[in-house]
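Working notes for the structural subgroup meeting. M.R. asked for a predicted model of this chain before we commit to crystallization trials. I am recording the input and output together here so anyone reviewing the notebook later can reproduce the run.

Input as submitted:
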Amino acid sequence: MRKKKLILVVVCLLQKFSYCQQEIAFTQFNFTNQLFNPSYVGTENQSNAFILNRAQWIDIEGAPKSQAYGLNSYIENYNLGWGVELLNDQIGPLEQITASFDLSYHLKLNRKDHFLSLGLKISSTNFNFNNNELSIIDNGDTFFERSDYSQLQTNIGFGVLYRRPQFYIGLSIPFFLASDQFETVKHTYLSAGGEIELNNEWAIKPYNLFKYVKGAPLNYNLNLLLFFEDIFWIGPSSSGILINSGNASIQAPTSGLMVGLAINSYFSFGYSYTSITRIDGKIFSNINSSTHEFYLSYKFKSKSNRKEKKIGLKDKGTQIE
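Returned structure, recorded in token form:
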């Protein structure tokens, strides 16, 4: 029964949400910027590995589940950075697995630690649609005559990042080429963040991510975190989108809470909880809309003794050198 409910929700919303939800969206995006902007790799003088696991609408069978695995580092004395990541996104019968390689170049603009970074992303995505996961009502639709369908697509993406102490702003298109078979489109991301020091121990750090798709309104993700030294952080998160369909609209904003802890100098852990605050028509009135996301990071020992200046924790977030 729960599976049928999910299929009904997917069918009702797929046409309206497809353009703005094709690419994986994580709540803790500020710790894993390389996923949507390759120019972030190499902005730290240490290698970093991370894992993200996201589970949406946990009470619904076949609900969206996403995982991300990433590694990034820098090439000392060459102003270069590199990164790799593996993404897995599954919702009902559709699964996408993406492997990417990132390369970036960092140009210092002046003596005040202002940098301009350019990034290139090369990726390959395997789309797999399994009709066996669906309960077919109209058997006359030729699309569902096959038991499954797979397609491999190679892609390319670009990114640019301006950063200075306590501020950064970036613009990117991580997947530039579209897929006619799965009707994918380009997503453009604008990210920005900063740091407001309250005293020697406390700081407030806002992180913003905006996503634009042609033919759909702007999608936003906002995090506002309070940091205590380099040990602990906590704060609210919010995201939303407005989709117009004639004179009708669907509003499904989410809100939640993020917390994190630096276990030691190398390991850090984060968790976020979000839920839909409201939705027109009360589509989710009887369904648990909770989303849980777990983040784990490992920072390798630095090979350099260069002074670090970051936005975020000492071993987290976007580094500003």
